[in-house]
Amino acid sequence: MTTPAAGATTSSTDGTQAAVVLGWGPVINGDEFNYVGAPDPTKWKVYSSPGQNGNGIRTAKAWYVNGSVAQVTGDSSGNTGGMSAIFDRNIAPYQRIEARMRTNQRDPQYHPVLILWPDSNTGCSEIDYAEGTSNTSQMHFWLHYPTCGLRNSATVTIDTTQWHNYAVEWSPSGIRGWIDGVQWFNDTSVAAQSMTAPMHETVQLDWFPAGYTSPPQLSWMQIDWIRQYAPPAQ
């Protein structure tokens, strides 16, 4: 994949993007993963901690950037990874972000997720704009409102082994999601409009072993790029 020139929003290999279809303008931040080694520490905080609900370990060793994509791998022992963006912290609320992602024929115990998570690491607000579950043929959008226990969602059948572009717009009027430039989630409710605490991008491959008696098969999630655009006007 190629790195966009200054102000560019697309290239011939990037697929259909909501940012282009909707005219979001130039990329203002993000990561093209056009380097080799660990995720750029000026852009990402890589997790070193227990996994989702205490399952397995999130380790920096699970990540590798090969000059084109960032890959996080989950192994048969529950060693996996996640990371949170630094580049979009402590900004005014509201975001426009798009990410190009795919998985292998993953084990249903490993769930890929692209999330906007509160900077404060507290509260119930959460925008899971692409989340896989044990049904490996589906992708979900989960919007968790500030009022704990309330949420809205959407589900689509999709081949996640192919590259797809997942976009989210969090604006004063609500929250919307797109896959490959096609809108699949829209919530303009009062509850959605009440979300105003700053949030940042996270990328995780989470292990959910509950109900399974065998260890998971090797699974991975690749990110080609993540691009942040100027947020909607307040």
From TrEMBL:
It comes from Sinomonas humi. One of its GO terms (biological process) is carbohydrate metabolic process. The lineage of its organism: Bacteria, Bacillati, Actinomycetota, Actinomycetes, Micrococcales. This is GH16 domain-containing protein. Coiled coil: none annotated. It holds the Pfam family Glyco_hydro_16. CDD domains: Glyco_hydrolase_16. GO terms for molecular function: hydrolase activity, hydrolyzing O-glycosyl compounds. InterPro entries: Beta-glucanase-like, ConA-like_dom_sf.
